[in-house]
Amino acid sequence: MRSFIISAYAVAVCTQSVTAWGTLGHQTVGYVAQEFLAPKALAFVKSSLGTTYNQSLGAAASWADSVRSLAAYRWSAPFHFVDAEGESEFLVILGHTLTSTISKDAPLSGSCSVQETRDCGSGGCILTAIANYTTRVAQTSLSAAQRQEALKFLDHFLGDIGQPLHVEAYEVGGNDISAKCSGKTTNLHAAWDTGMVSKNIDDNHDGTVTTYAADLVAKIKKGTFKSLTSDWLSCTSITKPASKRFFLSDAPRDVEEDVHRLFSRAEDVAEASVTPLACPLVWAQESNSYCCSVVFTYTMGQDLCTTSYFTKAVPVIDLQIAKQGYRLAAWLNVIFDGATNLP
Ligand SMILES: *[C@@H]1O[C@H](CO)[C@@H](O)[C@H](O)[C@H]1NC(C)=O
Ligand SMILES: *[C@@H]1O[C@H](CO)[C@@H](O)[C@H](O)[C@H]1NC(C)=O
Ligand SMILES: [Zn+2]
């Protein structure tokens, strides 16, 4: 089983070359976040990214994808996803085998789950990467270039984690499932990364990412997302009711508490960087749950970009991108201003 997991993981690393949300989706996450930055976070973002990125999280958001296939950055490839696996983890506590609290991930059978210990590879995954770069972006002993790198990784990974197929191991996150988008042959993963996102932007947002971002920001400030934002910043797992929360790491937390706890351990940077966080895991579980409810609900031969599947997917894409942009701002605000500074 171990060797199967390792080889499946190797395949995932090699073939996930088409990357989450594509450039357009990532940029939108960054542009949304930029609108909600608190004063110190905004000042850091502007000075760190500088003219190279027009002082903008939008412009810097897809840098991590542009370097991941270069030899110098190949180590970062596993950080773009977490592979929710189809294997149950059996846990024996005081002689009782518990399987119900940790169900396996099998989206076609309606079972979705992400478990950090089960799913995060030994080389790290998006969950450990977010912890690492949260610690590093605030580390004043690092160089400006190292802190800019950390910022660009956070900018990107908070987007990736919102893409349901970046938190799914099945068929290499859908890369191995052939699909159709507007008559063109593609795969399921790529349709979610780029095909449906760019059609959505063309159909509904004047074909530009900045308009798309502005439309999502308006929904957050005074539209249908306004009433949801406080939930977005609490990190109570939607997939795990309170009665099923078993471990300390399952206790409800929010964005502020998560970052503050990480920093309280940050004297030892190496230890802090791998400390499991509550919020990124909850974000991953939320995205992954869409694999059960929407992502795999197509029918044989259905065109994902022109049928009812597209109509069903667009609200999920809008929600996930808006939510992750807002969370990125909140996360940076806690890091630099000490609080989310958001309603
Ligand atoms: C740079 O950012 C400013 C606003 O901060 C914007 O008006 C301008 O269009 C941006 N330029 C580019 C090239 O994106
Ligand atoms: C943390 O980030 C640094 C710099 O990018 C990287 O070299 C290191 O491998 C990362 N550590 C973990 C545990 O992800
Ligand atoms: Zn990515």
Automatic annotation (TrEMBL):
UniProt-listed Pfam families: S1-P1_nuclease
InterPro entries: PLipase_C/P1_nuclease_dom_sf (IPR008947), S1/P1nuclease (IPR003154)
Signal peptide: 1-20
GO molecular function terms listed in the Swiss-Prot or TrEMBL record: endonuclease activity; hydrolase activity, acting on ester bonds; metal ion binding; nucleic acid binding
Keyword Metal-binding: yes
Keywords of this entry: Disulfide bond, Endonuclease, Glycoprotein, Hydrolase, Metal-binding, Nuclease, Signal
Ligase among keywords: no
UniProt record, GO biological process: DNA catabolic process
PANTHER family in UniProt: ENDONUCLEASE 4 (PTHR33146:SF26)
Protein family (similarity comment): Belongs to the nuclease type I family.
Protein name, UniProt field: Nuclease PA3
